[in-house]
């Protein structure tokens, strides 16, 4: 009986020791967790409101882009569509209105950011006397070879100027009538370089053909005016009203 009692006493002591050990472990665990619990339950400092993004000032969609335009984005695709749209007026090489054409093209150049930096600035002459001229205002003083020599320094590169030149080509190609495009394709090697279209060379070719056509027209008109005395006798049969109408018609043609 005494042995049984002794055994039970030892068992109770072991249980009490185990309980004390467990309690100590739990207490230590709780103490270790307290800093984290206190931090988690501490009031959170208010977050400062996000500052609104400042808008980028631009006069057109294209001018908001610096550097390359990513055509895979919605805004990039919109820039391409806007920049390559035909000009307001449909033009013809055979009946040119150069002043109106260049006026509308200058407006598009500003909207499309083709002039910042300008793709129309062409180096001319030979060093040390080389100068830069503007194709939109000094096209008569720039050769097509000078245009292609300059554009081929960047045409095969991945640059904004390359994108701008291609946009210019597409815009011009949409702007001129079918007969004009047929005439221009006869000199395609001038503005197509390694499967890339050169808008600057295309523009110079257009202006060259317009100038040649204008000179031919002017020469024809001068020839007719020089033979007015023959015309009034042979064609108008000395009809002054008909003769005056003919002269007026030639003058109007010369103004164009």
Q: Strand count, sense and closure of the main sheet?
A: 2 strands, antiparallel
Low-confidence stretches: none
- Quote the average pLDDT: 81
Structural class by helix and strand composition: mainly alpha
Question: Tally the helices: what do you get?
Answer: 10
Radius of gyration: 41 Å
Order of strands across the main sheet:
1-2
- The oligomeric state is single chain
Task: Write a concise keyword list for the protein shown above.
mainly alpha, about 260 residues, 10 helices, two-stranded antiparallel ribbon
Describe this structure in words.
The chain is mainly alpha-helical. The chain contains 10 helices and 4 strands, in the order H-H-H-E-E-H-H-H-H-E-E-H-H-H. The protein has a two-stranded antiparallel ribbon. Strand 1 and strand 2 form a beta hairpin. It is rod-shaped, with a radius of gyration of 41 Å.
SSE blueprint:
Blueprint: H1 2-41, H2 74-83, H3 98-112, E1 121-124, E2 131-134, H4 144-151, H5 160-175, H6 178-185, H7 188-191, E3 192-193, E4 196-197, H8 199-226, H9 228-234, H10 240-255
Antiparallel strand pairs: 1-2, 3-4
Helix pairs in contact: 4-8, 5-8, 8-10
């Amino acid at each position: 009986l005494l042995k049984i009692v002794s055994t039970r006493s030892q068992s109770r002591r072991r249980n009490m020791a185990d309980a004390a050990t467990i309690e100590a472990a739990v207490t230590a665990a709780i103490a270790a967790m307290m800093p984290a619990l206190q931090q988690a339950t501490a009031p959170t400092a208010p977050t400062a409101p996000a500052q609104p993004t400042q808008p980028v000032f631009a006069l057109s969609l294209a001018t908001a882009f610096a550097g390359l335009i990513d055509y895979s984005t919605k805004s990039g695709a919109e820039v391409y569509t806007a920049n390559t749209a035909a000009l307001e007026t449909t033009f013809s090489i055979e009946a040119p209105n150069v002043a109106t054409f260049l006026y509308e093209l200058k407006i598009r150049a500003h909207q499309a950011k083709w002039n910042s930096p300008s793709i129309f600035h062409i180096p001319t002459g030979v060093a040390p006397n080389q100068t830069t001229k503007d194709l939109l205002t000094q096209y008569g003083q720039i050769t097509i070879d000078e245009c292609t020599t300059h554009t081929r320094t960047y045409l095969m590169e991945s640059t904004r100027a390359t994108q701008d030149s291609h946009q210019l080509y597409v815009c011009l190609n949409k702007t001129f009538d079918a007969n004009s495009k047929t005439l221009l394709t006869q000199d395609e090697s001038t503005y197509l370089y390694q499967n890339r279209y050169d808008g600057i060379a295309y523009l110079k070719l257009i202006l060259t053909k317009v100038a040649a056509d204008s000179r031919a027209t002017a020469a024809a008109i001068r020839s007719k005016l020089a033979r007015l005395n023959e015309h009034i006798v042979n064609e108008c049969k000395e009809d002054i009203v008909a003769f005056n109408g003919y002269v007026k018609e030639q003058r109007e043609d010369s103004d164009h």
